Amino acid sequence: MPRSLLPAALLLAFALPAFAQTAPPAAPPSPGPAAPALKLSGAEWKVTRLAALSAIEGEAPSLSFGKDARVSGASGCNRYMGGYTQDGQSLTFTELAGTMMACPPARMELEQRMLGALGEVTGFLITPGGALELYGAAGLLLRAER
């Protein structure tokens, strides 16, 4: 390489990495190698935050995970039930079904958002404070507490 091009090549080699961009994580952070097993069953989780809703008025939706890989709860208007698969921090819900009672429009919208969020879940995290956070491809979908 000619000597006159060497400074330009070095400058380019060191400057390019400074302009690299990385996307923010859409999945829950990794707990690290020493993380304890994450237990979902044993208590009812009350939803405190649901994607794009600033507040949940009235009775909060809920989730109850059974040891038999079944999930059930209140979806805002009706009750729902179905299956779930957990592998480490990976989580998916399957075959969700529910009752079909009519409710006021605000409760029906809450229910649609709740069931829609459950259908998008791909992973979860239990925070240091003990809250359950469910994640999908777009990031945090819902947060619940015992």
TrEMBL record:
Signal peptide segment: 1-20
Alphabetical list of InterPro entries matching this protein: DUF306_Meta_HslJ, HslJ-like_sf, Hsp_HslJ-like
Keyword Membrane belongs to the record: no
Keywords noted in UniProt: Signal
Keyword Nuclease: no
Domain DUF306: 39-139
PANTHER family, per the entry: HEAT SHOCK PROTEIN HSLJ
Protein name (record): META domain-containing protein
The species this protein was found in: Falsigemmobacter faecalis
